[in-house]
Amino acid sequence: MSTFKQYSVLPGFNLALGFTLLYLSLVVLIPLSAAFIHSAKLTWPEFWSTVTAPRVIASYRLTFGASFAAAVVNAFFGLLVAWVLVRYPFPGKRLVDALIDLPFALPTSVAGITLTAIYAGNGWIGQYLEPLGIKVAFTPIGVFVALTFIGLPFVVRTVQPVLEDIEKELEEAAAMLGATRWQIFRRIIFPTILPALTTGFALAFARAIGEYGSVIFIAGNIPMISEITPLLIITKLEQYDYTGATAIAVVMLVISFILLLIINLLQWWVHHRGIKV
Amino acid sequence: MSIEIRNLSRQFGSFVALHNINLQVNPGELLALLGPSGSGKTTLLRIIAGLETADSGQVLFNQEDSTTKHVRDRHVGFVFQHYALFRNMTIFENVAFGLRVRPRKERPNTREINRRVTELLQLVQLDWLADRYPHQLSGGQRQRIALARALAVEPSVLLLDEPFGALDAKVRKELRAWLRKLHNDMHITSVFVTHDQEEALEVADRIVIMNRGRIEQIGTPDEVYEKPANPFVYEFLGHVNLFHGRVHHGQAWISGLKIDVPEHAAAEDLNAIAYVRPHDIEVSRAINGESALAVHVVHILSIGPVVRLELMYGDNPTQHTIHAAISKEHFRELQLVKGDQVFIKPRRLALFPNHDQEQLIY
């Protein structure tokens, strides 16, 4: 115990740690472990057949695939938006800056209905895409669009402050040494914002995996094609198949956890390559 | 390479940063731009570097107009006050940066880059730090690396913006001497900005003293210190005592002292201010015939070879502190203690007729 507790000039360590653990237990750990306990009612073969049913597998693929694709797109365009907001003065900049947060604030079902209305075959954008053979609403592409929408602010808001903090002098120094604009971006700016960008990517990805409200409207929820895993869990609940629902929930939980762990390791690795202030 | 600046002006809104600057930097010279903050010295340096643009006027490198040349093509090395080292690269990569970003055709091969970088790191005596990152270095070390990085591209001109401004006094002194030595060895045309008079006087071949966007005086350290062109330069360079008085037909009356000033023979009853440096004040126990000022010793600082005296002149409402510096031997001869009355007179003074102190806002 004496080696565990380190003396510090900051008071209240015991109290703060105790509170943190209690809070974390009540809010996160206990509900999550309940899912594991509940699914343990199933025998192993039962569990396995539930979570590997073709319809469920298809939903995993869609959920994680679309989330990943949306997070990648957001990482790219979010960086671009953050760059424009930080680097260039333009009229209405504050308004644009405020609009970025809209996906945070908007109820997800509102976003879902709006996106569906726009991308449906007779919607504003859908009517031009349909003749080209691109169907967005009620297809996996719709899922991807909705997930992109809700993930954008995560990347912008994590990259923006870091980009603002980059000293102008670094770029000036690089230019004086003969570097081109592209070389300055690639060798100086990008490595500096990479940790923030991976954080933004991870947040957008995690959010997209858990997203439900905005997706179910635009997805159309066709089994095997545009059905996401969270919807499958709801479906099972509606059929009073609580154990089946928790079984799938546990799989989601484990996969999400592993993915976040990988991203965190990646962040740690990026951070410890000397990118420190 | 020589640098010439012609009729250069720059305004930021209504603030005049530079007003019609003309300046010649000789090849191989180490020139200091000295001035208080807001005097335009950094703006001038940044315009020479190409990091800032001028409203009007020209910058010439070797008589060739380079005003519109891009930063990349000026072949200028620049050292920033806050180092501006690339945090995500090792010290080695920082120094190698300028070589690595060259177009493929001009880029030296890996072995050549290794050789050059190692050579430069040895030059700044920090080759043992090659694998570290900037945040692991002290301020003085970082600035030396920044200098090595600037030198890696073999610039024809080296510009330094308050290079020692962020360092503590001891390191600053060391680096000053080191920069002087480095310049003696390399003879690269260099311009550095500083607000530290001592630094400029100690390091530079020539000093340009700037104030409010204008050049007040250009000269060697000796010239500007011994023959300041105007009251601003006098006050800015080192400690001075200021006296008010009048001047008439080659004679000045200053604080009750009558002093011959033959160079102002034409003056007709003008207000004047006079400057006397502390070491130009003669302190004695008795009046030896001539007119002298009676003062009281208020404070004695006798550390080092020079003894600094704080002397009080006049009575309460018009009291006036005068600083004097005398040698230790002279101090011993006088056997001064606090509260003693002594007599002083200026050995040398600089008189500026027709000046009120109000004009000296800076």
Automatic annotation (TrEMBL), chain A:
PROSITE patterns, per database record: ABC_TM1 (PS50928)
GO annotations of cellular component type: plasma membrane
Keywords: Membrane, Sulfate transport, Transmembrane, Transmembrane helix, Transport
Membrane topology per record: Multi-pass membrane protein
GO molecular function, one term: ABC-type sulfate transporter activity
Localization, UniProt: Cell membrane
Annotated ranges, domain ABC transmembrane type-1: 60-263
InterPro entries for this protein: CysT_permease, MetI-like, MetI-like_sf, Sulph_transpt2
Residue spans crossing the bilayer: 12-37, 57-86, 98-120, 132-156, 188-209, 215-234, 246-270
Free-text function comment from the UniProt entry: Part of the ABC transporter complex CysAWTP (TC 3.A.1.6.1) involved in sulfate/thiosulfate import. Probably responsible for the translocation of the substrate across the membrane.
SUBUNIT field: The complex is composed of two ATP-binding proteins (CysA), two transmembrane proteins (CysT and CysW) and a solute-binding protein (CysP).
Record-stated family: Belongs to the binding-protein-dependent transport system permease family. CysTW subfamily.
Name of the protein described by the UniProt record: Sulfate transport system permease protein CysT
Source species of the chain: Nitrosomonas eutropha (strain DSM 101675 / C91 / Nm57)
Species lineage: Bacteria, Pseudomonadati, Pseudomonadota, Betaproteobacteria, Nitrosomonadales
UniProtKB/TrEMBL annotation, chain B:
Domain ABC transporter, residue spans: 3-237
Name the record gives this protein: Sulfate ABC transporter, ATPase subunit
Lineage: Bacteria, Pseudomonadati, Pseudomonadota, Betaproteobacteria, Nitrosomonadales
Record keywords, A-Z: ATP-binding, Cell membrane, Membrane, Nucleotide-binding, Sulfate transport, Translocase, Transport
One Pfam entry name: ABC_tran
A GO MF term: ATP hydrolysis activity
Gene3D superfamilies, A to Z: P-loop containing nucleotide triphosphate hydrolases
Cross-referenced PANTHER family: SPERMIDINE/PUTRESCINE IMPORT ATP-BINDING PROTEIN POTA, SPERMIDINE_PUTRESCINE IMPORT ATP-BINDING PROTEIN POTA
NCBIfam families the UniProt entry points to: 3a0106s01
